[in-house]
Amino acid sequence: MTERLSIAGAPSATRAPIVDGWLAAAALAVAAAYVRIIWFTPPEATQGLAQKIYYLHLPAALNAYIAFAVVAVTSIVYLWLRDPRADRVAEASAEVGLLFTTVVLTTGPIWGKPIWGTWWTWDARLTLTLFLWFIYAGYLVLRGAIPEPEMRARYSAVLGILGALLIPFIHMSVYLFRTLHPMPIVLKPDRPSLPPEMLQTLLFSFAAFFLAYLALVRARYRLAVERALLAERESHSEGER
Amino acid sequence: MADTTAYYHAAYLVAGALYVLYAVSLVTRRRKVLARLAALDGADGR
Amino acid sequence: MAAPAMPTAPELPELLRAAWLIARKDLAIEFRTRTAFFSAVVFALLGLTIFYFAWDATAVAAIDLAPGVLWVIFTFSGLLGLQRSFGVEQADRAMDALLAAPVDREAIYLGKAIANFLFVAGVQAISIPALALFYNVPLAGVWLPLAGIALLAAIGLVAVGTLFSAMAVNTRLAELLLPMLSLPFFIPVVTAAAQTTARLLAGRPAAEAWPWLRILLGFDLVFVVACAIAFPYTLDE
Fold first, then answer.
1. Total domain count for chain B?
2. Is the ipTM of this complex over 0.85?
């Protein structure tokens, strides 16, 4: 059998450098953001330096939500078109999404302790992010438990869509729970209008981390393609023996 | 507010570590796969 | 692999009749051995006991504990029942025979879900009186609305659990995956049920419980439909 199964996106995969332009640019942007935040942005008057954690926490949260939306959409696309590329984007976005969600869940408490006096609070955003983490984790464990690519893609897509359906219910439950169980009064540090310098840093931060999201998804997508290529070649060469 | 400096450092370190670790994991995994692909190419005498 | 043709909306009576046949088959199998049901009941009773001793009874009155305990137990004993739902088809590749039959795929889902629902409801029918006994919960006057909440919660649990059971059974980590995937989905159900139960037992006006009930009803509606639609995608054909 000489016919080569073509894997979408494969031709350039093996020639692509491991650290490509996107990743390099993203690394640079994130480093620049760090520098800007640490040395070129004044600390907020009332909360001291810990407030700066915000510049890390918020962009990570945004990326986590975007990544999740991408998983949901590509899941629908996969079930509709059965294109493996959609599945690979979902896989990539899920893993990168888990990363950003973890960052939110670690920086959140580290920020919370000095600002709110408590490591954890079941506030709406943190709780929702925790759920996102659970869904991502379940998604990735599911993928890990199915060796066959087509079934894995199909099952993951189902979970991706159902997970997205779950989010509004979590939101409603948390919201209702909180309005009926008053939480300790919290200075809402993320509400005050930011002076322009801080706003600029925040926007810069958003841009840098979003670039990082794109670059990481791109790289992870490549890994998925390379793995598929490897699996196909390995079964091919086994067939020839 | 001297206390909060420690938290600020911790957060940036932890987040930075997570990002770096992930990037390293990605690169390592891709290296492994590409190495195996190259080995297969060699074995097939291409 | 071509996408399966969108199933034409099956005739409802036909669908329900087929679903009931499948449910009856499952229930007959379960009834013959009864081990899963018995295990789930014992597990629930043990859970009630453990929770009681794990709490400081002087700090919190047992009756205040009751709603939370009931719905946590419900979750885990429900999972026990769900585990065997598709596991029973693994032997002798019975699933293939089931799929070969001229029956709508949604009917298979509904049938399994109905069987699971009756299983869970059965466990609840024993757990709730046991809870009342162990935790000094006066059921007079509230047992009917409580039964209603229990059934609504069971629908939500079973809708999602049946689908994930179908998926998990085909994977390498079936026993781990089912709880891992299902529990995030159970949380709105359990929260709404527990909150409603707490208000019911405290004699609060019904209007207070209504927002939670609405979430529960909405969840049931959305997920029964969504999971029934998703089920055919989990089949290899």
1. 1
2. yes
Tell me which amino acid residue C58 is. T
C99 to chain A, any CB pair closer than 8 A? The answer is no
Would you place residue C92 in the very low, low, confident or very high pLDDT band (cuts 50, 70, 90)? low
Beta-carbon separation of A145 and C171 below 8 A: yes
Q: Which of A14, A18, A50 sits opposite B7 (nearest CB)?
A: A50
Torsion angle, alpha carbons of C55, C58, C64, C65, to 10: 10
Q: For chains A and B, what is the number of CB pairs under 8 angstroms?
A: 93
CA distance C166 to C171: 10
Q: Which of A18, A50, A227 sits opposite B4 (nearest CB)?
A: A50
Residues from chain A that touch C229, judged by Cβ atoms under 8 A, are none
What residue of C is the nearest CA neighbor of A169?
C188
Tens digit of pLDDT for each residue in C165-214?
A: 999 988 888 889 999 999 999 999 999 999 999 999 888 888 888 999 99
- pLDDT tier for residue C116 given thresholds of 50, 70 and 90: very high
**Torsion (CA) C151, C157, C160, C162 in degrees, nearest 10:** -80
> Could you tell me if residue B20 is inside a domain?
yes
Given a cut of 70, whether residue C10 has pLDDT beyond it is: no
Phi, psi of A48, rounded to the nearest 5 degrees: 70, -160
Task: Tell me the whole-structure pTM to 2 decimals.
Answer: 0.88
B6, part of any domain: no
C199: left (phi over 0), alpha (psi -120 to 50) or beta: alpha
A86-137 pLDDT, tens digit per residue, is 999 999 999 999 999 999 999 999 988 888 888 888 888 889 999 999 999 9
- Touching subunits of B (3+ CB pairs, under 8 Å) are A
Q: B23 lies in which domain range? A: 15-41
Q: What is the residue extent of each domain of chain C?
A: 13-234
The answer to whether C and B touch (≥3 CB pairs < 8 Å) is no
Q: CA-CA distance, C188 to C165, in Å (whole number)? A: 19
